[in-house]
Prior knowledge:
CATH topology of the largest domain: Spore Coat Polysaccharide Biosynthesis Protein SpsA, Chain A
Number of strands: 17
Number of domains: 2
Structural class: alpha/beta
Strand order of the largest sheet: 5-4-1-6-11
Number of helices: 12
CATH class of the largest domain: Alpha Beta
Bound molecules: cytidine-5'-triphosphate, magnesium ion
Strand content: 25-35%
Distance between the termini: 45 Å
Shape: elongated
Order of helices and strands: EEEHEHEHEHEEEEEHHEHEEHHHEHEHE
Largest sheet: 5 strands, mixed
Low-confidence stretches: none
Amino acid sequence: MTVAVVVAAGSGVRLGLGVPKALVPVGGRSMLDLALDGVLAAEVDRAVVTAPVAELERVRGLVRARADADRVAVVAGGATRQESVAIALDEVPDDEVVLVHDAARPLTPSALFDLVRAAVVTTGAGVVPALAPADTVKEVDGSAVVATLDRSRLAAVQTPQGFPAGALRAAYASAGTGHTDDASVFAAAGGAVSTVPGDPDAFKITTAWDLRRAEQLLARPVATRTGIGIDVHAVDASRPLRLGGLEWPGEPGLAGHSDADVVCHAIADALLSAGGLGDLGARFGTDRPEEAGRPGVDFVTRTVALLAEAGLAPVSVAVQVVGNRPRIGRRRDEIVALLTAAVGAPVAVAGTTTDGLGLTGRGEGVAAVATALVGPRLP
Length: 379
Ligand code: CTP
Ligand code: MG
């Protein structure tokens, strides 16, 4: 069995928001909630969270709102990180692997927990994730530089730090004060500690700059825009019906210069709208003689090409046909396949009637309404 101790009882003085750090939101969710995502997605059976005494109920509420709440216990932490870990270890049986983790490292990937856990099982001793320092590190006395340390012999360590639980508890029971991580407590009691490669995403949020970096890492990478398009054509039973790029033998057709495919025209208009590229009439002059009889799906593919020229690409499209006939449902899969290929992104297709009301309800015409989402074209 593997238990994670997630320490979240600090006050976040250096972040300076006047709120315990673990409750500070990053990308709309608290650091603790985000940290628990990584912890509980790993091969971890249970988690014990240390909460600030004054925020015990708030933290319990936050945990209760999670789908995996039954795997998490919350206890009140102590005055220092070291005390908080010691309190949490009372909830962890001796024969388990314990992974001690800072809630202040909310973006730690679950793979790092699995890596540390596996190394504890293999070595039977302490394991810490470590990164080589990028900077040259000096020993100083106030502002005076005393020595330049040999960087090749230095490592910056992160959490989760993993140990056999019984050995870590014994180390904590005999430890002096002033330890800032678990490996130093373990080593002070004579325990061996080795490293595994750390992960840059496991960085600790200490200052406002760290918080901004975490926000940026969680931010949606692309800006998208929505667009809307509507098209209506009158019924002309003397023409064949073309709708959604398909032929519909036996169904009454629609009047128009082009093939009067309202579905394709609405989609093309929605894509142009989302791209800020005007509309179908302005772009292609659908009533020009040379456009007569042109398949509606061509307008969709030409619109996608225009978007590409503008550095844009469709993200998704939804279209709804409004009319008594044809029944969309029976050929939905064919339309979806054809239009998804033309748009190059998922297309949802629906149909509806209007309870006998209006031009579509009286069977005088067929309408289509489309929305489109467009974003930057990725290389
Ligand atoms: N921690 C804890 N109990 C304490 C102090 C710290 O559980 N009495 C936890 C923090 O919640 C954090 C981790 O230990 O997840 C690392 O501590 P640190 O980054 O120093 O957080 P804070 O103590 O909250 O920040 P500060 O030192 O700026 O006040
Ligand atoms: Mg602290």
